[in-house]
């Protein structure tokens, strides 16, 4: 689990995505943006939602919030986050390092349209001090081109 599982997946699938590791924590959007020297929106935060019977991951701009009405229209249920004490068990990654990569439980992954304003974004890489440099197009492709519009600025 964690960053090693991400490295292994990238190697096995021949992905050339660049994993960046830091001495300091990048577990929040602001910490990651500061470490990378980018604006907070370029951090592709990965949020884990419990749809009552199915967990899903949604990547969105770091400075974007969930629009509850849009979420319910998209998923048919009210937005409910996976509890923090269960995040690692349910996603395979620790809180602050949750990412769509090396998805051990086969969770569906969605990309919010808020990320379309960037060419390159930085999701976590399975640890609290890592990131992956990836184009938005490649991230969407990785997620099966499952686009949603559930964010609000």
Q: Number of DSSP strands?
A: 9
Task: Assign the CATH superfamily.
Answer: YbaK/aminoacyl-tRNA synthetase-associated domain
Order of helices and strands: HEHEEEHHEEEHEE
Q: What is the architecture at the second tier of CATH?
A: Alpha-Beta Complex
Enumerate how many helices there are, as a single number. 5
Alpha-carbon Rg, integer: 14 Å
The low-confidence runs, each spanning 5 or more residues with pLDDT under 50, are: none
Q: Note the main sheet.
A: 4 strands, mixed
Q: How far apart are the first and last residues' alpha carbons, in Å?
A: 32 Å
Give the arrangement of secondary structure elements:
Blueprint: H1 3-13, E1 18-21, H2 29-36, E2 44-50, E3 55-61, E4 65-66, H3 68-75, H4 87-91, E5 108-112, E6 120-121, E7 130-135, H5 136-142, E8 147-148, E9 151-152
Quick summary of this structure?
The protein has 153 residues and is of the alpha/beta class. The protein has helices at residues 3-13, 29-36, 68-75, 87-91, 136-142, and strands spanning 18-21, 44-50, 55-61, 65-66, 108-112, 120-121, 130-135, 147-148, 151-152. The protein has one domain (3-152): YbaK protein (Alpha-Beta Complex), CATH 3.90.960.
What does this structure look like?
The structure is a single chain. This protein is an alpha/beta fold and 153 residues long. It has one domain (3-152): Alpha-Beta Complex (YbaK protein). Helix content is 25%, strand content 24%. It has a four-stranded mixed β-sheet with strand order 2-3-5-8. Strands 1-7-6 form a three-stranded antiparallel β-sheet. A hairpin with an 8-residue loop joins strand 6 and strand 7 (130-135). The radius of gyration is 14 Å and the shape is globular.
